Amino acid sequence: MAIAPSPPLEATPVRKTRRIGLTLLIACLLLFGLDALLFRTHMYSSILEPDSSAGLLELILWREKRAQHTAGDNLVVTLGNSRMGYVPKVVDLRPRQTGYVVRTAGVAGSDPRAWYYMLRDLDPTARRYRAIVFGIDDYDDEDEAFHPDDDIRALHYCIARLRLGDAIEFAQSFHSREIQWEAFRGAVLKGIALQSDLQAFLSHPLKRIAYIRLCHQGWPDWTYNYVETSRNMAGLQIDWSTLTAMYPPGMTQEQKDTVRGWLLHEPNPQTGRLAHFLRTWLGRIAGRYRESRTKIIFVRLPRGPIPRPDYLVKKRSSSIRELASRPNVILVDEQFFDCLEHPELFKDALHLNRDGVERFSTMLADEVARVLGPPGERAAR
Amino acid sequence: MLFNTAHFFLFLAVVLALFYSSPRALRKYILLAASYFFYGSWNYRFIPLLLTLTAIDYTAGRWLEKVSPGPRRKAVLILSLCANLGFLGFFKFYNFLGSNLAWVLDKPADAFFLNIVLPLGISFHTFQSMSYVVDVYRGEQQAVRNPIDYALFICFFPQLVAGPIVRARNFFHDFFHWQPPSSEDVSRGVLLIGLGLTKKMAFADQFAKVANDYFKNVSGNPGWLTAWSGVVAFGMQIYFDFSGYTDMAIGMAKLLGFHFPVNFRRPYLAESITDFWRRWHISLSTWLRDYLYISLGGNRHGRWMTYRNLMLTMLLGGLWHGASWNFVIWGGYHGALLSLERFLRGERPVREGWNWLFPLKAILTFALVIIGWVFFRAADLPQSLQVLRAMFGGKPGHLLLANWHIELIVIALVLALAQEKLDWFERLLKAPMLAYASALALMFLCIEVFGVIDASIPFVYFQF
């Protein structure tokens, strides 16, 4: 008598659960693998939109890494946001050289959190530079309506620099839960943060690649030879008692908006958030260079065409001055650039114009050279 | 609690854990409690309404079984149908009828207006409930003894708010002969949930952004290319949104040991409108066929009665979607197209299989369906006409879809054609674990890079 084959045994519920759990685990691992292959290798960071936050930071990083090969041993780099108007060309063309090569790695819109992650890759050994100069708005901490600790743009600036191990620490550095979550998931799965960039790339891949090639060919020269506008704020008057401004004829709406937003705002409650943020990120940078030959130099940037008087708000702390007690940290005299705080030297309420930038750059180069002392022997090639 | 939120997945995980860790006798209570919790998380004030409808149709079913055939039996059926349609009519159509009555009586448009909040999914669970009563009346379904069982049939959370409309005999077959899901069921369920989520987040919501922008400002977006791209975007949105929801619903049901019917079969590959309705929202179209079209006489009384029945069925099908003339016109438009096809085809059966004319027919059908979506999506009749005018005249305007949107459409088309010819979905279920996991990983990657993650775009059919 033939024996009929028995039907295949159905897995027990526990085995089924294990199996599907294992499958989901493999799927998640593959997802991380694909994400890493695309976004954690050079593959995608090399095709980032050059005009995006992430692309701009990457382009500056690329330019400055290249410059490290030819700039000799007495290399200084400046970091800051768009207000840090240092122009190497102005200094290079001066007849009297300081002996230092000063480069700028500042990124418009960036903050100390982004500088930390940028520097980590720009200077992996923490020994490449003789000094790193940070342009700071104020040595005292003033909380304003905009809180940089909750600025999710930092994720987009740093996205290509973030490592998987940074995810928790990076996310926790934000203030609100929602932003923390957004930062965490973006740091873990970079594709989420790079969605818009990728979608734009998929729409016009050839155009993007051609633009990147063009940027790689010409961008160092374009930025080196960039000439700032000569537009100025001459004639601007501010009544600090009423927080109102008298604008001279011909001032653009954009200029007026910066005056309103940057200078004429009501004081905000001083919560200490900015101090915490600066202590954290500038502290981490200072900590990285504690036993290095690299000096950390802070300068207070010219505050504006007409600086806000100190009596408007009682500032409770000075995280920058606290940092000065650390080894290797130097503070340039707070008032050093006060002579540039004139409406004629600003193009709007935040940024220096051509004359302002030229004066700032030479003053900065000279002051850095003075602070650092005579350069070492290995000059630039 | 939208299906594509972390909250919902947490809820699902808890339900699955409780369901499988409890003794069998308790499981239906767990599902019932979870379903009411799910419904209550939207608006708990409508739970009594759901309970009332459940009680009415449960009682009607029991009565129908006791009462012998005759006028009394018919009266019970009519009472039940009136109660269902009465609730549906009041919540869904009161203001529509009121505004039309006001227009007829030359009164202000809001003369009879009541501020009514539409209970979520009322159209779906009412139809599901009605079909049960009709089936019991017809003797095709035994009345359910236990009210808990019946309540679960009505409010089972995977399909409560937007279907698929499940027939009582299918649901209770699974319910009374419940078997733990097989390994294949579990694999299928997980894959369907993944696929549905991808359809919703990576496709539907991206197209929704384009469509919403267009329909929010039709006047500001002139040109035929602009209009067509806006309407195509909506066509993509509604397909991916609704079929994505359905995939997830079917997948969840599979994980709980229930087998829901297929609701979509690549409708945009249809080569005629008749074929389209065999592929689109199948649970509704078969419901309309079985309980309306056939009850009206179907195609048994000659050509003109067939056309009439098709028109009536589609008009009511349109009205089922919502209380506005736009839905009536949309239904009428499809009814007219079905009748026209029937007229041209005569008594020949609908062609199955592809031939060399397929691409042409599919494109024509797609275009006709897209034109129909104008009425479905536009805010009102004047806006529908404005969009139609823009689609068929004037300057080209600009394309609202970016190249990557078009690439998404091409990917979807290739996958749909591959499914039609190669049935990759079934092959994937039988493939080694690594291939299956890779498919899931690709879906997750698609959500990662294309998914609309921060904006919460509700499922289109939740409004019905």
What's the arrangement of strands in the largest beta sheet of chain A? Answer: 2-1-3-6-7
Sketch the major β-sheet of chain B: none
Q: What proportion strand of chain A?
A: 5-15%
Topology of chain A as a string of helices (H) and strands (E): HHHEHEHEHHHHHHEEHHEHEH
Overall mean pLDDT of chain B: 91
How much of the sequence lies in strands of chain B comes to under 5%
Radius of gyration of chain A: 25 Å
**Helical percentage of chain B:** over 70%
Radius of gyration of chain B: 23 Å
Give the number of DSSP strands of chain B: 0
Looking at CATH, the homologous superfamily of chain A is SGNH hydrolase
> What's the structural domain tally of chain B?
2
First-last Cα distance of chain A: 94 Å
What's the CATH class label of chain A?
Alpha Beta
- Most extensive interface: A-B, 30 and 28 residues
Order of helices and strands of chain B: HHHHHHHHHHHHHHHHHH
Count every helix of chain B, treating DSSP H or I runs of 4 or more residues as helices.
Answer: 18
Unreliable parts of chain B: none
CATH T-level topology of chain A? Rossmann fold
Oligomer: heterodimer
Shape of chain A: globular
